[in-house]
Amino acid sequence: MPAGPIDTLSRLITFFAHEGRVMDEVGTEWQGSTGPSATGRTRLRMLLWALAIGLLVGFAGLGAPLDGFMRSTRNALARHSASGRIVVVAIDDKSVQQLAEWPLPRGIYADVADRLDRLGARKILFDIDFSSRSAPDEDKALEKVFTRLGRKVTLPVQIVSDPVTKVRTDVLPLAQLSSHVDLADINVWYNFAGEVWKIPYSFDVAGRSYPTFAAKMGARRAAGDDFYVDYSIDPNSIPSVSLLDLLRGRVPRAAIAGKTAIVGATSRQLGDTYVVPGHGIMSGVFLHVLGAETLREGVPVDLGWMPPFLLAALLCAGALLTRRYKASLACLLLGVAAFLAIPLWLERRLLFVEIVPSLTLILIVAGRLSWTVFRSSYRMRGITNAETGLANLAALRQETVDRSRRMVAARVRNYAEVAATLTLGDERLMIEQIARRLTLGAPGMKLYQGDEGVFAWFAGEGSIAELGEHLEALFELFRSPVRVRDRQLDLTMTFGVDGDPSRSLPNRLGSALVAADEAFRDGWRWKEYDAARLQDAEWRLSLLSQLDEAIDAGDLWIAYQPKLDLASRRIIGVEALARWTHREKGPISPADFVLAAEQGGRIKRLTTSVLERAVQAAAELHRLRPGFNVAVNLSARLIDDLTLTETIGDLLARHRLPAECLTLEITETAALSGSASSLDTLHELRRMGVQLSIDDYGTGLSTLSYLKRIPANEIKIDKSFVQGIATSSSDKLMVHSTIQLAHSLGRKVVAEGVEQRKILDLLGAMDCDIVQGFLVGVPMPFDELVKLLPAMEPRRARRA
Fold first, then answer.
1. CB atoms inside a 10 Å sphere around CB 329
2. Prior bond to 790 cis, omega within 30?
């Protein structure tokens, strides 16, 4: 490792460990409550982990297959022709067939050598084994020619290893043939896949070092142990003549004169083949020529993987030093592109590198950065208004501010009426105008935007009288119309103030809005929340903020009511039901807090909390009993939410729950009155595999055409009809006909409110699919459900 890069890298790591003051523009979760120092430590850990994995890939050679693939791709892109100065005299298929003898008589090789010499060959190499004796006259004829040609001829030596005993044998030509000629080695290296990437410069055989055929023909002295073969040289461009044509005088002098000729077997029948990367199976004689052609181009240098890895480490450290995420990621992606492209340029200059460890390092850092910022941006979407970019009220609830500061809420009384006449673009312009006026005279003030014309902020230091004067001025400011393009809009604004630092931020916001509503009702411009006078209204009007606290504190929990499959008499699923046990008031009716959440815009948070816990429970139940289903009620207000499918998909993926194990129950009224976008959402959920159920069927305005349009898997008959089938013939007829209708449409039927054995038997006779009610099981906590599930199997249903 060069000293310079090590020193630089050491300084950068020290900077991360002790300074740690870099923060991405988006990746704010790295800062958290511990500040920028935690950011530096996080990035240092990221860099060290990436370095460790990259070093493992490099030292263990794990990236060799991928490096080989990329090098073959680069060779294909840089394909070029051989020099043409080396010609192969091929013992090809037609030579083997016509001469009809193998091994060929050595008199033929003597003739070949003589003809090549007369055609003007500069050097003659034989990739033929002459280590054993043949007919004496044949050996004598060959010896005579070799003696005459002398060192113009090169014969092969080699090392042979027995594949079973691993005993090495040094193989040399007969002394009578080799005493006057040069000798060179024909061994090559190959890897675990049988591929030949490198060729040695020389081999030690019988106590002496011999150059390889490639080094001999390339006229290069050893510059190391071995060298990479330049496989961008096109093997098809290597000149080749048939040995048979040479013997029969059909080879012109121009094909041989002044060139090096190598005689070797190219017929696949003779077995002298190797795996050549990017080219497949190839005869060994061409491998020697490709090695020689490489050396004729220059001296190949194997830089290995460490130099590019050091550069990649410096690149990653520099990218992590960059303050802006986009610049960091752009730097890393450009690095990836450079590491993919530069080796192509280097290999044209015979500089060979391995880049997989470097790419591993860069991609790990880039992937970790991207994932971190993706999570940040995903969370930011939950606390930012997508249209205006202002922080929303969810962001306000997460604020850590000086609680002694007063909270101010402003409500535009006629917001809905005005917004109904505007396009989305014009509504955004109107909100921008409102925000400018509200922040006038308060530089740096953070404004929070809620739904339907609600805005909130924290007042600066000062008395309530000074704040009142400021709000009076704002009220006067809004007496002037807001101008949007060519329209003037008159807005009515009132303000409320909460100065109680002892309560939570959601409660304080609710109080400030109550005060704003009181101000409007009483004809005032602003009003401070009066806790004493509004004690009776406190519980009702702060219900939503207390619900938020209950969700955070775990006071909101999930009860699970079992569902019985009538055909198998097995518990095949449960319905997840939200329950709230208030720490002072005890159990709160779901009808109260669910309705309040829907009316107050909190239903999405409530439903998301229930879904999170229900999907987690479903995943645990699925592991215990594969296919077990959990149903969750979905508010009508969420069907039009464009993020619904994304939210559910994220939950399923995070908890590894198959989509078919989740059922979403929507009320019949919501399903039937839904817009086209609602139906699109339902269809998208079905394509994901999520099950859909029409809840409280029979209480809405049911029509066959609507039922055909809604992509539900099942219909859930309301308990008001189910509980009457034992005494009311009309209810019995209605339930029976509904079951038949649902089955004709390919849907299952769930009957809820089953509390009597007689009703259970009647539903079974009607071919109802699933039942739910106190007879099957009461809503219960998850732990109790898991304990009682085995006892709730067919025996309990039969005894009930």
1. 18
2. no
DSSP letter string over 440-473?
Answer: TT-TT---EE-SSSEEEEE--SS-HHHHHHHHHH
User: What is the dihedral sign for C-alpha 39, 45, 48, 50?
Assistant: negative
- 211: closest CA among 295, 283, 86? 295
Give the sign of the dihedral formed by CA 253, CA 259, CA 260, CA 262.
Answer: negative
pLDDT in tens, 257-280: 999 999 999 988 887 888 888 888
- Partnered with residue 183 across adjacent β-strands are 155
CA 112 to CA 260: how far, in whole Å? 14
β-partners of residue 691 are: 663
* Closest C-alpha to 297, from 228, 208, 354: 228
How far is CA 441 from each of CA 74, 353, 438, 460, rounded to the nearest angstrom?
Answer: 64, 63, 8, 11
576, β-bridge pairs: 560, 632
Taking the CA atoms of the chain, what radius of gyration do you get in angstroms?
Answer: 42
Burial grade of 357 (CB within 10 A; 0-12, 13-18, 19 or more): buried
* Helices 644-655, 676-688: crossing angle, 10 deg rounding: 20
Element (H, E) at 99: helix 93-99
Rounded CA separation 542/612 (Å): 25
State CA 29 to chain mean position distance.
20
> Torsion angle of alpha carbons 41, 46, 47, 53, nearest 10°?
140
**Which tokens is 447 given?**
């404004």
Q: How far apart are CA 128 and CA 303, in angstroms?
A: 34
Residue type, 468: G
Record the tokens describing residue 320, joined without a space. 């992590």
- pLDDT for 547-582, tens place per residue? 778 877 777 889 999 999 999 899 999 999 988 887
Eight-class DSSP state of 195? B
* 558 Cβ contact list (under 8 Å, min separation 6): 576, 577, 578, 579, 610, 613, 614, 617, 781, 782
* Distances from the Cα of 671 to the Cα of 155, 502, 553, angstroms: 89, 43, 33
Q: What is the per-residue pLDDT across 739-783, written as a single tens digit (0 to 9) for each?
A: 998 898 889 999 999 999 999 999 999 999 999 999 999 999 999
What the block records as the tokens of 432 is 């921008």
pTM of the model: 0.50
Asked if residues 712 and 747 have their Cβ atoms less than 8 Å apart, the reply is yes
